[in-house]
Amino acid sequence: DVSKDVDENLIKQFLSEVDTVQLQENLRELTKVPHMATSQGDEQTVQFVLKRWQDPESGLDKAWQQEYKVYLSFPNPNNPNKVTVVNPSNSVLFTVREREKPYTPDQEDPEVVQPFAAYSPPGNAVGKLVYANQGKPSDYHLLNQTIDLRGTIAITRYGGAGRGAKAINAAAFGVVGVLVYTDPLDINDGFMSDTNETYPHSWYLPPTGVERGSYNKDFGDLLTPYLAAKEDTYRISPEDITGIPPIPTQPIGFEDAYRLICELDGKKAPDEWQGGFNCTYNFGGPGFKPTSSFNNSDVKLEIFNQGKILNSSNVMGVIRGSVEPDRYVIYGNHRDSWVHGAIDPSSGTAVMLEITRVLGRMVKQGKWRPRRSIIFGSWGAEEFGLIGSAEYTEEYFTKLSERTVGYINVDISVFANATLSASAMPSMQSVIFKATKQVSAPGSDSTSVYDNWIRYSNRTSPAHGVIPRVRYLNGAGSDYAAFVHYLGIASIDMSYTYDRSKTNARIYPAYHTAYDTFDYASKFIDPGFVSHQAVGRSAGNILIRLADSLLLPFNCNDYAESLEDYLNTAVTLYEAQLKAKNISMEPLKNAVANFRRAAEQLDKVIQSSDLANETPLNIRKINDQLMLMDRAFLNPLAFPDEYGFRHVIWASSSSGKATFPGIADAFAQAESSGSSTDWNKVHYHLSVVTQAIEGAADMLNEVI
Amino acid sequence: DVSKDVDENLIKQFLSEVDTVQLQENLRELTKVPHMATSQGDEQTVQFVLKRWQDPESGLDKAWQQEYKVYLSFPNPNNPNKVTVVNPSNSVLFTVREREKPYTPDQEDPEVVQPFAAYSPPGNAVGKLVYANQGKPSDYHLLNQTIDLRGTIAITRYGGAGRGAKAINAAAFGVVGVLVYTDPLDINDGFMSDTNETYPHSWYLPPTGVERGSYNKDFGDLLTPYLAAKEDTYRISPEDITGIPPIPTQPIGFEDAYRLICELDGKKAPDEWQGGFNCTYNFGGPGFKPTSSFNNSDVKLEIFNQGKILNSSNVMGVIRGSVEPDRYVIYGNHRDSWVHGAIDPSSGTAVMLEITRVLGRMVKQGKWRPRRSIIFGSWGAEEFGLIGSAEYTEEYFTKLSERTVGYINVDISVFANATLSASAMPSMQSVIFKATKQVSAPGSDSTSVYDNWIRYSNRTSPAHGVIPRVRYLNGAGSDYAAFVHYLGIASIDMSYTYDRSKTNARIYPAYHTAYDTFDYASKFIDPGFVSHQAVGRSAGNILIRLADSLLLPFNCNDYAESLEDYLNTAVTLYEAQLKAKNISMEPLKNAVANFRRAAEQLDKVIQSSDLANETPLNIRKINDQLMLMDRAFLNPLAFPDEYGFRHVIWASSSSGKATFPGIADAFAQAESSGSSTDWNKVHYHLSVVTQAIEGAADMLNEVI
Ligand SMILES: [Ca+2]
Ligand SMILES: [Ca+2]
Ligand SMILES: [Zn+2]
Ligand SMILES: [Zn+2]
Ligand SMILES: [Zn+2]
Ligand SMILES: [Zn+2]
Questions:
Q1: B382, B391, B394, B561: which one is catalytic?
Q2: Å from A135 to nearest chain B CA?
Q3: Residue B211 to residues A106, A168, A341, A577, B154: CA-CA distances in angstroms?
Q4: Nearest residue in A to B633, CA atom
Q5: pLDDT single digits (tens) B339-352
Q6: What is the mean pLDDT of residues A2-15?
Q7: Of A372, A617, A649, A680, which to mutate for an interface test with B (greatest number of B Cβ within 10 Å)?
């Protein structure tokens, strides 16, 4: 029926059918074995997802496996990476653990990959050790004032800078090798002992746990930027990859980091550099204290990482739309993990499979078919840089751009069980609120996910008063990146997460370690799977609304509010100095005002329209205005050095300012250099953003 | 009525109302005074077009003037450019004419701009003269084998290379100034005398006629690439403009060129360099013959061109669509000329105004309203590099990209009155044929424009047999450029043109001179305005079909035929050598085959659909497939050095091969350099084109 709107009864039925036992069994099955991208275990999960999506009782209309040939990086299983302390006569005084200590049989699985820094080059590096805090440029700069860093090995802690940036920043100062560890202060609220404080006694990270990770700056397959990585696709040479560590780099556990750091000589590091160890963090002499048994010794990295071009699979599934099959709502999550990946990403995959089970059954039973088509993506090789989703968007760029209404990403569905967290295009705020008001908070009958959320994270909106804070999708932290930044598609990323008053952990402690297992997840993250259920219900509710609403549930006035916020910040921070440079911010102010006016006008049209009697083409006209508005924010030339970042509002910024990223970064650069070329770049970005906003307003205006 | 298709009776009525007297009077009014971009005369044409489009009896729904601040280049009216021959004691022996000789009062109008090379820098250049043929790199290369070109002035003839390229190529060899003239062989079929052979006795160019022109390589406002040129838009510095002459450059008439060339000393130039003068074209000593009165003398250029940022206007008009207002058919032509511009562009504007008069009246009388919206654009500053249309597409990029069904460009509507000529996306071939079969050839009742056309220019199509040859839109010769190359919108450029068996003129002889007047046009180009009428009827018929057809009249099988042609050429030219480099063309072959399959499949769906009973959204779905297919050919990164060229099938190429331009140019470069970087670039372009074609096929495939 062309004029059928979303069916609230169907949503109720959906909510009632999302089942904690199903979620638990999904997770159990998905985490049976380690399933790092392209491994045997990964292929098992491919088959499992396929089986579920092809199930005659509860499957989708169609499901298939789709491969890309992508560039990955692995340690050599026959020649593990080694980190040692060697004395001047080349005797090994100390060896860093090669594997995490087993507490359950999971960790003993031979398929558990040795901790490593993906895309770190192979090679040996020997030198005196220094402690470089988080490996930010400012950290090395400070160190370099008292220590000649050339030829040293730097040990850095996770946080503050991207993984690969720690090594790139280091190399600029002549550092020859980098170690990275997770400080107990940053991940364990200080707890360090595995006899009673850490897993298996709590959710905290055992002393030998190591966060693996990819150390590349850009997302997508590194050899095929802007081209889908097929068999014969042109590939750049691996030597021409930029944004990866130029020097050997290896992550280690804090048990070993403790030994190294607490023996360091040299000046005491600043207070902000001190971590959770019960010793003073010194800079390093460089090297160790004279009183240490490591005195005069070097730290040696022997890295044997190998680059490999391998087939990685996405699993795709679709439910064909009844009325508008050529409009897509996409829901996705990656499938690959570093080890067993119970939380990352299988908690999200468990939710996705439960949503497809409930919806698939309705479809198979003939009870429901969405108005628009729904596409599910189980992405491969996300851990190596969002590769599966990026290649997918590269391959189907125009089709996805022209037809996709929205993208929902649920990677880690449950970091912790305190509250919802959501990041999204501001236009999607209202549908997130609507859906989460209908879902009970985990373990409560009387409180909604929304009511619970507003207690943990809120803001005061000029239009709506106090509301939960929906965050922005500025980064490239999961598979939404290509949809937001490359395609300009309205997107949501959501999960259940921490009570920040109870922990400072930068992420759940077992993240990317061998302890992220079913046992860990079901005991310490979400016992009873009630948070999984709440996320599944919330995300599924939004999914149904995007797919079934006659008029897309997008509110562009909420987008205007965010642009106004950005504008106010920009005016406060920059206007005086720009005026002095003869650069006017008036056009930007006008553009934001025009956007607001257009959004209000369109909203009036929507509010006053008699939906049931509108012609299908009139509804489609408005929906296209709403769907395509965000595309006007794309500029493929604005950030030439950043792969995939084309959205001039949400692009990532190094400025740390909550405002237009291109202007903010260019301003910071111009202020620091003072060069007229750099001030011109500020003006350029001002014009780019101004015209993008005008273009977006045009999409909302009367069509002719 | 949602299911109403194009009305053949309405088309008949339209055809019957297109009137030669109206066309003649339009042209008379448009050419009253010179109307170079931003001049007083230009503003008069703005007001004239506005008045017509706002006419209560025959105007459009809405019309308005829209300004951009753009960078133009003019001679200094108080200090005209000078070209002289000066002897060693600095006496002036000869001065090139500053104005064309008047035959009618038109040429005496003080607003006739002195001939000049727009965007040539001001400055003086003195040196010995050499004859450099067409100013191609190969021409200078040959010359340079016997003459040290450093410090010389080169005289070149129009043709063979772009205007600005003649000077850019010259500067690379140390040439310090360039003259450009039109050789009688290239424009006048050899005729040279104004006493009986040339205008006012015929259509041929008088000896003092000079082709003005813009000497920039890139189109669009040169200071604001990819940004609309508004008041506060960021502008690059004029010194940073690339692709314009680096040395003083000036066009002159052949009367003066004759004096200079026939006195040249040195070796006889090759046969292909000889032109229409009754003397031997020598290279130059450099400089003149010892027997010449110019012996030992230099040629001196004193150029006083000035860059100016001025407001240039587009005039825009719309007829709002009844059923699909959010789908646009755009029809445009530039309004600005160099002088009176009777043929270029007013013959096209006369046609546009006649089409809007007939359609506007139907709308005002309530007899008709198109299904889709029609937008008319009277572009400004085309002569300076397609500026008005380019700025328009920059400003409304997303809106136009998402909503525009097709663009029709009629610039010079009548070059000559022999036959139709049309260039278009291959998908539009069928609607061009359908329309032109319904229009009588000028001066004939029994022959159609189509039947006449096929006699002058045809080809054998595997699918259709012998048909008129529709050309490709590879270049950037008029305002279709931004629509085709930057936006990927299906476009048509059309005109009436020569019988090539009767003339070799590279273009109509009065092109860009002071002789392109109403008198010239009405006496020698289209007496009776019957060719204007045929073009108006043909273009208007196509316009109505694009606006009113229930299903868009696009045939993607015809697009497939062109891709197959390109593929066959590419395989013939490149496959063996690519194989030797381990680069496979199989993916490209598969892509073209997939496109063909998808086109056939969609065609079947269209043929088998019962239009009257299809739902509006099903029709829209197919129309969107047809409309948006071409967008998949866009790649904003494929040609980083070419402003606006994003369409990987139709981008311009310097290879001279009728095949995929990126591959062809990269192959030529790789073959000549042999470097592996260059061979990689061939592979890159092969992947770009392959994936673009796959993406286009995806747009035609089943939507889910
Ligand atoms: Ca790729
Ligand atoms: Ca511009
Ligand atoms: Zn993840
Ligand atoms: Zn992860
Ligand atoms: Zn023209
Ligand atoms: Zn012209």
A1: B382
A2: 34
A3: 82, 57, 72, 48, 17
A4: A398
A5: 999 999 999 999 99
A6: 95
A7: A617
**A32 Cβ partners below 8 Å, 6+ apart?**
A41, A44
pTM above 0.95, yes or no: yes
Q: Cα separation of A547 and B61, whole Å?
A: 37
| Interface touch B325/A227, C-beta < 8 Å | no
Q: Which residue has the tokens 């690959």?
A: A336
Among chain A residues, CA nearest to B631: A398
Phi, psi of A272 (to 5 degrees): -65, -15
Distance from CA of B576 to the nearest CA of A (A): 17
Q: What is the pLDDT of residue B612?
A: 76
Q: Which two tokens stand for residue A582?
A: 């003869």
H-only helix segments in A492-555: 518-520, 530-548
- The pairing of strands A404-409 and A491-497 is parallel
Cis bond leading into A345, ω under 30°?
yes
Mean pLDDT of A477-491: 98
Distance of CA A76 to the CA centre of its chain: 27
Tell me which H or E stretch contains A572: helix A556-580
Contacts of B679 in chain A (CB under 8 A): none
Residue range A501-505: mean pLDDT, rounded: 95
Beta strands B458-461; B465-468: pairing state? antiparallel
Give the confidence band of A593 by pLDDT, cuts at 50, 70, 90. Answer: very high
Interface size between A and B, measured as CB pairs under 8 A: 143
Cα angle: A234, vertex A239, A241; to 5 degrees: 70
ipTM over 0.95: yes
Contact by Cβ (8 Å): A252, A179: yes
The DSSP annotation for A452-483 comes to: HHHHHSEEEETTTEEEE-PBP--S-SSTHHII
Q: Residue A522 gets which letter from DSSP?
A: I
- The alpha carbon of residue A471 and the mean position of all alpha carbons in its chain are separated, in whole angstroms, by 13
**In this complex, do B704 and A325 lie within 8 Å of one another by their Cβ atoms?**
yes
A559 is written with which tokens? Answer: 């987008």
Query: For B630, which residue in chain A has the nearest alpha carbon?
Result: A398
**CA B337–ligand 6 middle distance (angstroms):** 7
Q: What is the mean pLDDT of chain A?
A: 97
Scan residues 219-248 of A and list those with Cβ closer than 8 Å to B.
226-228, 230-234
What percent of chain A has a predicted confidence (pLDDT) above 70?
A: 100
Whether residues B398 and A632 touch (CB distance < 8 A) is answered with yes
pLDDT for position B504: 94
Helices in B3-95 by DSSP H: which ranges? Answer: 8-17, 20-30, 40-53
H/E/C letters for each residue in A445-460?
Answer: CCCEHHHHHHHHCEEE
In DSSP notation, A226-276 reads: TS---TT-----GGG--SS-SS-EEEE-HHHHHHHHTTB-SSBPPGGG--S
Three-state secondary structure call for residue A504: coil
Contact B120, B167 (CB under 8 A): yes
Q: State the distance from the centre of ligand 6 to the C-alpha of B346, rounded, in angstroms.
A: 10
The DSSP bridge partners found for residue A311 are: A69
In A, residues 14-73, which contact B (CB 8 Å cutoff)?
A: none
pLDDT at B299 over 90: yes
Report, as an integer, the average pLDDT of A394-421. 98
Q: Residue B529, SS3?
A: helix
Residue B14's CB is within 10 A of a number of other CB atoms, namely 21
β-strand pairing of B419-424 with B491-497: antiparallel
Give the H or E element holding residue B186.
helix B184-187
Question: Which amino acid belongs to residue B508?
Answer: Y
- A360-A366-A371 Cα angle (round to 5): 75
